[in-house]
Structures are given as structure tokens and as C-alpha cells.
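Suppose a colleague, Dr. K., hands you the sequence of a protein chain of 615 amino acids and asks what its three-dimensional shape might be. Before reaching for any lab equipment, you can write down a predicted structure in C-alpha cell form. Begin with the sequence itself:
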Amino acid sequence: MGFLQELEKKILIGDGAMGTLLYAHGVDRCFEELNLTHDEQISQIHRAYIRAGADLIQTNTYGANYEKLSRYGLEDSVQAINRAAVKIAKKAAEDQAYILGTIGGIRSIKKTDLSVKEITRGFREQLHSLLHEGVDGILLETYYDLEELLAVLNIVKNETALPVIAQLSLHEAGVVQGGHTVAKALDTIYDAGADIAGLNCRLGPHHMIQSFEEVPLHESRFLSGYPNASLPDYKDGRLVYDSNADYFQKSAEALRKQGVRLIGGCCGTTPEHIEAIAKAVKHTTPVTEKTIKTKGVTNVVVAKEREQHLHELVEEKKSVIVELDPPRKLEFDRYLKGTEALKKSGVDAITLADNSLASPRVCNMALGGMVQSRGVRPLIHITCRDRNLIGLQSHLMGLHALGMSQVLAVTGDPTKVGDFPGATSVYDLSSFELIHLIKQLNEGISFSGKSIGQQCTFSVAAAFNPNVKSLDKAVQRLERKINSGADYFITQPVYSEEKIIEVYEATKHLPVPIYLGVMPLTSGRNAEFLHHEVPGIKLTDEIRTRMHACEEDRLQGEREGIAISKSLIDTAVQYFDGIYLITPFLRYEMTVQLTEYINMKTGRRFTQPVGSINI
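The predicted structure, expressed as C-alpha cells, is then:
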């Protein structure tokens, strides 16, 4: 009789954590490598869980895939580590417990690091190694990304007839990443061929029980639940889990009442927790009926009024936006004078960089409020460098609350180029993922998939660097950003008429508008710095020569920079309806002059933004 047949009549007990148990005993290395170097230590843990009452134990292979093992230089040991793990588990079990070959998920919110194709390629190697040694079933656990789980589940079903347990992990109770309900996601997993579907990790018993309350029961569909011991605490530089066994005993009974038939533990659980589960529910009869607790529908307020987005405006007329970088010091007089002057010249928005070149400046949200209160659209740059997922969502919700809906999503210059090269670059997300998640906020769904109660109204710009060797590859990145949800593009400054035409020809097929970047030069030294040291900017030899000739005369250098920019604008307005002027060193007089030149050149009229909020 297999464990699926047993589950028809009774509750079965899974084991608990492996990694956090080793970590709590001072092991701070690749846990899976211990299969080769300290097999008896792993065997002792397996035996402890079996003595505690576990009917099924997992192989020590959660992270034994090519991707995770490569972090330790062990990528060539995938087969050896996985096969050793099965042998250790079988020897420890002595036919007293079923052996589950465990394969952990890789993705979380960040999807661009590995494609599904790359994940599945490595997955097959691990799967075949486990199957070779004769496991009783396959456990797919800790999958946040439903797409990843379905892809690997399909492979398992095509490779073996063994039972498959597929478990999702949730960022928040009751909802799967992307906004699916737990009930809907588990139905999708069953339909894809899973024999048992459930939840593990991330949540403690309270929130896991809460998540199962909305999941209906089906006669032929079995549920599993492996909660964490508790929410983790951070003490003396280490993550610790505080939870007593008595609480887990009560929680196991509550899980059984929700129809869960396979109950184990995840992070922070120990043999004591499993013993408590066994005392509560081992060999008890499964629940086949329950009352579904349905939550009241969370009404998402649909945005009815908003200002006109820049990507809509530029489809109607020539548009000019100007970058006016937030100051490094707490001196705002010149900045605000620049704002007023640019408003009078007729700019459609003032863009505010997010600590450009990785150097601290006044918060662009605060400056955006000042710009907005003066009747000009602020376009807020958002980098992935400085904020983790929590900070990014909070920042965006704050922008929405203040009525600032124009944003530019960028990766951000690495901290090594800025004032604090030792600072940490966060990069929880790439710009692609940030764009996608901002658009998710526009649906009223948080990064974790939960309702935020109201739809945001963001228009999302993305960055485009045309100053590269392979423009075709750069355009392919633009296409990916469009697929992620980008509404339009803003380019790095371009310094040749030929390049402007080349950019037009390479991008004219794109379905979204482009604001072409123009930044006036101020001196020969400025030209040389930009050309040689700033990533993404290249100048022609002719322009560098012209600027070098003005090196001794600041005013002449600015006049020459203006003349060069006007020449570039003459070409740009023939091919692009959006111009992005970048103010050098807060010398807003230069971008005012160029804005007025564009007005004269194109006959454009300035339209005040609607829906702005006075602060």
C-alpha cells in the first residue's frame, strides 16, 4: 500500500525542517553538501523525525539543483548530492517511513534571473538523480511562482508515475503571488496532475490555517500543510523561530479540521514539533466536509479621474519634458526659481532623478510635491538600487496618495560609482519586474498579490540607452519592457544627427512613443567627462573639438553647448514628438532657452496638467 492509499483513510505525518535545524546547531554552509561529507548527521535528523512520528521524510535536497549549488562551486555535484541523499534517507528509514524526493523552488517575485527554460533544464538533472535511487514520491515545495511550479510539475508527470506533492508558498495569507486565491491556485495545480496540493513555508500555523479556510474539499483531492514554527525573529545576527510544541499540537488539529491530510513542518520546526503533531492527529480520520469561510469581497476602487499621462499627451502633440535634478544640499531657492522658469517656458513635466550616479540628493518625492504645487507635472524616477520590495511598494503608494502618477522605472547606477561605494545596492528587482509590478498596482493588487483597495493610475516610462554598439539588442530590451508594461521610453542624451535618425529607424515599429534625450554641454571638460566616464553617453569627435575650443570661456562654452543642442533638436523634432531636455548642473536657463526654441520651431502650445494636487 502506498501513502496515497493510506491518506484515503487517515492523517499522515510529514517531517520537519532540515536546513534551519542544522543552522540552529551551528552549521552555516551548503546544507546539501553534507550528504557527501557528514551523512551521519543527516541520518540522525531523519531518524529523530521518524521516532517523533513522521510517516514521510524528505531527502536533504531542497536546494540541490544546479543554480543553487553553483553558489558554492558545487554545480558539478548535482547527481552525487541527490543520489547520496536518497540513500541516506532510505537507510535511516529502514522501511518505517516513505521517502519523498524533495525539489525546491527557485523563483520569487524576481523572475528575470532565470527563465522557465533555464529552470526546467536544471530541474531534470535533479529529478532523474532522485528517481534513479528509488524514492516513493516527489515533493515540490516552496514555490512562490505558480508558473514555475506548473512547469516543473508537468516534467515530473511526464517522467514518472510516482505520486507528486506540489506545495505553494504565500507572501500573505490567502493569496498567491500574482493575485490568485489559494483555492483557485490549488485547483490549477490539481488540474495539472498533482496528487496532493498544499502550502508550506513562509507562514506560521495561524495564517496557514486561515489560508485553508477558503479551500473547498474534494473527495479525490488531498491537501498538505507544512507551516513554519512561527514568524522568524532576528537575534544577534541570526534568524530564530520561537514556538512551543503545545501550540503546534493544537494547530495540527485545526489543520485537520480544514481538510488537510498530510501535516508536517517547515522552517524552525524540530522533532518536538512533529511529535506534537503526531499526538494530535496521527491515524485520525480525515475530515471530508467543512464550512467554507468566504471573505467579503474586497472592493477595489476604480480610478475615475486622473491627469493626462505623458504617453497620451505626446501622441497628440509635440511634448517637452525637462530633467531638473534634485539638489545635493538643503538649498531650494535656485531649484524653485528653475521650476517657475521652466513652467513659464511651457514644459509638460519636470523629471526628478532618484539619487543619480548613486549620490544622495534631496528626496525626489518631496521635490515632486514642490513642483506639483507650482502647477507642473512631476515625473518621478524610481530606481531598484536603493529600496527593497517593501520600500518600493511603500514609495509608490505614497506617490499615488500625493497624486503623482508619472514615473520612470530604472535599475539605477551601482553604488560603486557614487559618494558611498561601500553602500549596499539592493536590486531586489530588475527594471522589467519593477515595471510589471507598478502596472500590477494599477490593477489594485500589491506586489505580494493582495488587494490594496484602490487602483493606482501610474504611467510608466522606461529608460533607453541608444549609445550602444548593438542597437538591435537595445531595441529587443525595449520590446521586453513593453511586454512588461512600459507605456513609453525616455532616452539617454544623443549627440549626433546620424544617431537620431538611426534610433528612429530602429524603433519606428514600436507601438509606444519615445522622448529623445538632449543635454546641453557646458564646457570642454564637461564634454570629456561625459564621453569617457559616464556610462551610456558618447560624443562625436566634432562635438568634443568644438567644446574644447571654448574651454577658457565659460559663457562661450555654454553658447556653443546651446548651439549644438539646437542643431540636434532640428533633427530630433523631425522624427520624434517627444523631447527630453536634461538640465546640466541646475543651469535651468539653458533648458529654458532650448524649450523656447522648440516652441518656436514646432509652434507647440503648452497645456497645463489636470488633476494636480496643491500641497
